[in-house]
Amino acid sequence: MEYLLSSQAASGFENLRETGSTNRDLLERALAVEEFHVLATDFQTAGRGRLDRRWEAEPGSSVMASILLRPKFADAGGIGWLSLLGALAITKAIASFGVSPKVKWPNDVLIEGKKVSGILAEASADLSTVVLGFGINVSQSQLELPVETATSLYLQTGKQINRDELLAKVIQNIISLYGNLAASEGNAEAAGLRQALLECSATVGQQVSVEFPDNSKAVGLAKDIDSGGRLVIQTSSETLSVSAGDVLHLRSS
Ligand code: BT5
Predict the structure, then answer these.
(1) Ligand 1 pocket, CB under 6 A
(2) Is the pLDDT confidence value at 253 over 50?
(3) Three-state SS sequence of the chain
(4) Do 214 and 106 share a structural domain?
(5) In this structure, which residue's CA is closest to atom 25 in ligand 1?
């Protein structure tokens, strides 16, 4: 697969036919590459999700890539926005192919309630670098997808979308949204990022159940996303700001 458009959009670009994880590879190479270097692959044998979960996709069926960022924000809250920034960049890119995606906090892009894309932001040990990795399901049939809750752009549009064109748009959107966030010193409100995200949020305004990494749970109304990218939940007894957890959208009865 040729990635001509994508290589023009990034400051440096490599596509590997196969690797373990583009996030792992780019973190290992963090000191050797420039900001906005992109590593893409046609197949991952150990694709990572959050909390040791897996990202799985058949060879050549999806966009899988990671981009290197070196955030130096005066407002430390900006770091907490990076996976949401990635989700917004993907949402805008996908919308240009005629679908209506939404962002599910903290790192999913959904079309009609099904997951078409997942984002994983990982920092280097010295915190100088953040690698923003993303998988976008492009050409899979339902049988080729790893879980029932997943969908692909092919299933949603009936069209085979060019992966280079899609990845180039995502890279351009990430660089542009990140430029605004950096110019606002990491303040997502001043950068217009918070407003743009709220406009396509599938989560804010919903009754949700949140499962925390320690397996405890909270149920309430998702009210807002705060300056650190945390989900603000109103439960029957308190207001919680959640920085990590899995959200289940509850149907209103
Ligand atoms: C994510 O984690 O959604 C983040 C996925 C990030 C993947 C990219 S690919 C390029 C880069 N390199 C990496 O190694 N990773 C990044 P999480 O929210 O934890 O969701 C993981 C869950 O999504 C799994 O447990 C499955 O239930 C589901 N899943 C796995 N593969 C999927 C797929 N192709 N489409 C939709 N859902 C999937």
Answers:
(1) 21-23, 44, 47-51, 53-57, 64-66, 107, 115, 118-120, 133-135, 137, 145-147, 150
(2) no
(3) CCCHHHHHHCCEEEEECCECCHHHHHHHCHHHCCCCEEEEECCECCCECHHHCECCCCCCCEEEEEEEECCCCCCHHHHHHHHHHHHHHHHHHHHCCCCCCEEECCCEEEECCEEEEEEEEEECCCCCCEEEEEEEECCCCHHHCCCCCECCHHHHHCCCCCHHHHHHHHHHHHHHHHHHHHHCCCCCCCCCHHHHHHHCECCCCCEEEEECCCCCEEEEEEEEECCCCCEEEECCCCEEEECCCEEEECCCC
(4) no
(5) 53
Report the nearest-CA residue for atom 2 of ligand 1.
Answer: 49
Residues 161 and 237 placed together within one structural domain of the fold = no
Same domain, 232 and 167: no
> In this predicted model, what pLDDT tens digit does every residue of 29-50 receive, in sequence order?
999 999 999 999 999 999 999 9
| One domain, residues 218 and 193 | no
Residues 152 and 207 in one domain: no
CATH number at residue 33: 3.30.930.10
Query: What is the per-residue pLDDT across 174-203, written as a single tens digit (0 to 9) for each?
Result: 999 999 999 999 999 999 999 999 999 999
Enclosing domain of residue 108: 4-198
Overall domain count for the chain: 2
Q: Do 14 and 138 sit in the same domain of this protein?
A: yes
Give percent of the chain with pLDDT exceeding 90.
93
124 lies in the same domain as 212? no
Residue 92 pLDDT greater than 70, yes or no: yes
Position 58 scores a pLDDT of 96
pLDDT at 252: 54
